[in-house]
Write a structure and sequence with these properties.
Strand order of the largest sheet: 3-5-4
Largest sheet: 3 strands, antiparallel
Radius of gyration: 23 Å
Strand content: 5-15%
Helix content: 40-55%
Shape: elongated
Number of strands: 5
Length: about 100
């Protein structure tokens, strides 16, 4: 690998092929783990983070919907935290978003 900074000096870095391959494999594994679908637990209940991931909503969008009571949710007894039920979210999506007829 060779870099040429703006100063006109040249910097060369020699990385052995084995190290480069190990770095590439490790990087690929980390990327695959990040983009892999999250594992569904046995519980149908989701916290706010889980609901955001499940619906692919931003935190802002989810909280605006809960503040407007436009999405089904439960508030924990102490008032600190929200819970969402997967089945209720699925029904809400079906009722809120019109089918285009294109779904496979």
């Amino acid at each position: 690998m060779s870099l040429q900074p703006h100063t006109g000096q040249r910097l060369a870095l020699v990385i052995p092929d084995q190290l480069m391959n190990e770095l590439a494999e490790r990087t690929a594994a980390l990327v695959a783990a990040r983009i892999a679908p999250t594992e569904r637990t046995d519980s149908p209940w989701l916290d706010a983070e889980g609901a955001m991931a499940y619906l692919k909503f931003s935190r802002d969008r989810l909280y605006k919907l809960t503040a407007a009571k436009a999405i089904p949710f439960r508030k924990k007894l102490d008032g600190q935290g929200l819970l969402f039920h997967r089945d209720e979210l699925d029904r809400w999506i079906e009722a809120t978003y019109e089918s285009t007829g294109c779904a496979a």
